[in-house]
């Protein structure tokens, strides 16, 4: 059991739930963040139709329950997630949460999706603050640095602009995100002491646990580790992924088999995935996307209570029969992006 965090607000929070939540230091930032944190790609059309009122209630319940770190991005619904989150946060005390948003990834159109320029970075931060209804964010992140054609534009143009934005008080700390772990490492090596936080997604799941081998590097550099996407962007759930998912048919088939086994046992694969996800030593927080109070309850139950005997047996069965090797989609989006840009330039 944890003590009450600095973000605790008497009269707003559920004190008992906050005491049950563990809070961890986010690298050199000094922020004490909840072990479970809230991702908001789900507050858009990326994962199907959104019930606005339910989403707002979910955000309120999450923060009252002790979740104090919230992550969003302009790309999620082209600003819709930030807009919905802004609506929800109007009735939440600012001191009750830490928030991160991103720059560099924007459009659904693959050709126009990424822009690491200083000009677009500045415009993006201003727009995000307006949509969120905030004067500043706690962490501003460069979204998917592994999609840049050359890291030079990230380090020599985007990052310096974010440093100026931090000096202006519109953000407090700087982070980077990527699916390809080696690129996160390269960025930190090329920009020493300039990056405070990394976000790695879908790299500590039932499918792929390669983040483990990078933890010591990030810790040596005093980098806060946000371990994101317990469910591998929807793959590891009973309902399955969206049509846009970059995973191969082989990976999707394995996950469908796992979901069918769970459905037959009246178990939610997502709960097993959430439990597995949180078994990583060294991460500061475990970020999971949610859009309903029901999903929030399932994920918090996996954190508070672990798995029962039946769920544990099914998880062990899945590990031994289906999730026996590393399965990922590294390089797939990069290849599609480069192909689309090349075709558009002809």
TrEMBL record:
Q: Which InterPro entries does this one have?
A: AKR (IPR020471), LGALDH-like (IPR044479), NAD(P)_OxRdtase_dom_sf (IPR036812), NADP_OxRdtase_dom (IPR023210)
Q: Which GO terms describe its molecular function?
A: L-galactose dehydrogenase activity
Ranges for domain NADP-dependent oxidoreductase come to 36-318
**Protein name per the record:** Protein IolS
A single Gene Ontology CC term? cytosol
């Amino acid at each position: 059991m944890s003590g009450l965090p600095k973000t605790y607000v008497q009269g707003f929070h559920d004190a008992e739930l906050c005491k049950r939540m563990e809070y961890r230091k986010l690298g050199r930032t000094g922020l004490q963040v909840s072990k479970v944190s809230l991702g908001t790609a789900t507050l858009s059309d990326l994962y199907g139709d959104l019930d606005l009122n339910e989403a707002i209630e979910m955000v309120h319940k999450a923060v009252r329950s002790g979740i104090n770190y919230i992550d969003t991005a302009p790309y999620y619904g082209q600003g819709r997630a930030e807009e919905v989150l802004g609506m929800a946060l109007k009735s939440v005390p600012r001191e009750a949460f830490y928030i991160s948003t991103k720059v560099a990834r924007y459009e659904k159109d693959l050709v126009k999706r990424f822009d690491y320029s200083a000009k677009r970075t500045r415009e993006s931060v201003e727009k995000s603050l307006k949509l969120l209804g905030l004067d500043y964010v706690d962490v501003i992140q460069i979204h998917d640095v592994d999609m840049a054609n050359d890291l030079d534009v990230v380090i020599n143009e985007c990052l310096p602009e974010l440093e100026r934005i931090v000096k202006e008080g519109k953000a407090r700390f700087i982070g980077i995100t990527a699916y390809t772990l080696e690129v996160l490492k390269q960025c930190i090596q090329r920009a020493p002491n300039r990056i405070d936080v990394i976000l790695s997604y879908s790299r500590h799941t039932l499918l792929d646990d390669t983040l483990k081998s990078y933890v010591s590097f990030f810790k040596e550099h005093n980098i806060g580790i946000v371990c994101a996407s317990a469910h591998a962007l929807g793959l590891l759930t009973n309902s399955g992924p969206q049509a846009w998912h970059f995973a191969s048919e082989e990976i999707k088939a394995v996950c469908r088999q796992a979901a069918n086994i769970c459905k037959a046992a009246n178990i939610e694969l997502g709960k097993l995935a959430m439990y597995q996800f949180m078994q990583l030593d060294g991460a500061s927080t475990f970020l999971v996307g949610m859009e309903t109070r029901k999903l929030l309850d399932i994920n918090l139950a996996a954190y508070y209570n672990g798995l029962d005997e039946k769920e544990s047996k099914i998880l062990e069965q899945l590990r031994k029969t289906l999730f026996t090797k590393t399965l990922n989609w590294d390089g797939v989006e990069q290849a599609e992006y480069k192909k689309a840009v090349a075709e558009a330039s002809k």
